[in-house]
Amino acid sequence: MDSNKPRRRFPWLKLALTLSLVLNLALVGLLVGLINRVGHSGSALRSAVAALPVEDRRALRRETGQIWREARHGQQRAQTSARLVDALRADEFDADAFAEGLREAQQRLLQISDDMHDRLVARVSRMSLEERLAYAEDLQEQMRVRRWRGGGVGSDR
Question: Which of 17, 18, 72, 126 shows its CA 20 to 30 Å from the CA of 52?
Fold first, then answer.
């Protein structure tokens, strides 16, 4: 035996890092799917945000950034991650438990989207008629520029 060979102190570390990568990729996939749900170039929500006046858009992005930071550090996220890892580590794989964990993660993303939606609606609700008319013009232009699948508002098909 070679006594100069370094001993591995954390044999479980490689597995933990792999599982973490898998979970992060799953969450990123869910998020990308959510963002691109409506069309190739983005969603109606994205167009609606892009059409806001610059100051409103910046303020909304700051607010939604706070939503993302809170979600990233939430206790529920840690519990969901632990359940997913436990389901993967079980001697007999429980597909239902794993699927439920993924559903919980997706529900969290949908809640974030709903929060963003509510903040956008509140911001537009505070606009005067003149501001809303200008916003409508900008939104129409945003939706014209973005090509949508299957026709719809602003489609040139």
Answer: 72
- In Å, how far are 5, 42, 57, 92 from 60, measured between CA atoms? 56, 18, 5, 46
Domain residue spans of the chain: 13-145
Contact 98, 88 (CB under 8 A): yes
> Which region holds residue 151: left if phi is over 0, alpha if psi is between -120 and 50, else beta?
left
Asked if 38 and 150 count as a contact pair (C-beta separation under 8 A), the reply is no
- State whether residue 97 is helix, strand or coil: helix
Encoded tokens for 141:
């232009």
pLDDT, one tens digit per residue, over 94-137 is: 888 888 888 888 888 888 888 888 989 999 999 999 999 999 99
pTM for this one? 0.53
- Secondary structure (DSSP) of the chain: --TTSPPPS-TTHHHHHHHHHHHHHHHHHHHHHHHTSS-TT--HHHHHHHTS-HHHHHHHHHHHHHHHHHHHT-HHHHHHHHHHHHHHHSSS--HHHHHHHHHHHHHHHHHHHHHHHHHHHHHHHTS-HHHHHHHHHHHHHHHHHS--TTS-TT---
